[in-house]
Amino acid sequence: MSSSVRPWRDIDRRKSRQIMVGNVPVGGDAPITVQTMTNTPTEDVAATIDQIRRCEDAGADIIRISCPTEESTRHFDQITRASNIPVVADIHFHYKRALEAADKGAACLRINPGNIGSSERVAEVVRAAKANGCAIRIGVNAGSLEKDLLEKYGEPCPEALVESALDHIKLLQDHDFHEFKVAVKASDVFLAVAAYQGLAEAVDCPLHLGITEAGGLIGGTVKSSIGIGSLLWAGIGDTIRVSLSAEPEQEVRVGFEILKALGLRTRGVRVVSCPSCARQGFDVIRTVQVLEERLQHIKTPLSLSVLGCVVNGPGEARETDIGITGGGAGKHMVYLSGVTDHHVQDADMIDHIVGLVEKKAAEIEEGMTDAGKADSAVEAAE
Q1: In what helix (H) or strand (E) does residue 48 lie, and over which residues does it extend?
Q2: Is 146 annotated among the ligand-binding residues?
Q3: Per CATH, the architecture of 269-368 is what?
Q4: Residue 380 has what pLDDT?
Q5: 14-261 homologous superfamily
């Protein structure tokens, strides 16, 4: 059933103008992009490139790399040339790092213009960005608000974050620079969401969403899902980064799960599974863990239901591409396109499901290729 007949699922995205981060559009009607950040020492070029590769495999659209020292930008061009996705240079205080990164292939500079220094230094960064076709991300963070704003408001609050963002935006606009996106992050979900809501009403630029310092894999995923998810549900946000104390490829996977849950992006296998109970005909928890691990290489969007018994299993299986429900005596029912198809023995189940998913993904990809060929043939005939 299409979302057009499910109005309760429609998300009306905020109208933002579009910018380019390398070859990736951000804002406007472009898909919401998923970002992450490397945690290797940038000076270690090989390790950084290796981590970028893992993030690319996980589906990252954009990667951010910290540039705190002159040594970190010395071989930055090797990294940008090796990366298959646009690289954002993370700059905090020293404006020369921004100039170096822009000259060495950065697609975007993440800065706080107010931290760069004088207006002349901001002008230099803008000139470098313009000369190299770089976008700029203004990164406002509740943990590093300007002293005058803390004195004015007494504590980090939504109004302070928005005012900081608007001040930084003006610094760029005063230099006739408009290819920017903005983040107003906080580790407090309520603070971050309120700040983004206020900023969304004040500007038309793309917004980069995130709950900063969210925590570990479980806690950080929950906080990020609540904060980022509620904003996306309200139509706010053009690119996201899930900040976790976990490997960056995990951030990417969680980001895509948030987008998939809201129907905003589809990538890889969407697993529908039960929490398991005494009725289960097989070990649902272990099965799902193994399947998620073994199916990470699948990029084609498709759905898989894994239910331990026949109470809800058949109903869920009707809504997924492939499904399995637990049966008695170690024999389980497999559903294909919502229809009962055959049984599989417990010992063969995981390998069998992986094989079915891989086959289905290949069929979908082949169908997409055939559709593309058909479209090309029609265009040629016309």
Answers
A1: helix 45-58
A2: no
A3: 2-Layer Sandwich (3.30)
A4: 46
A5: Dihydropteroate synthase-like (3.20.20.20)
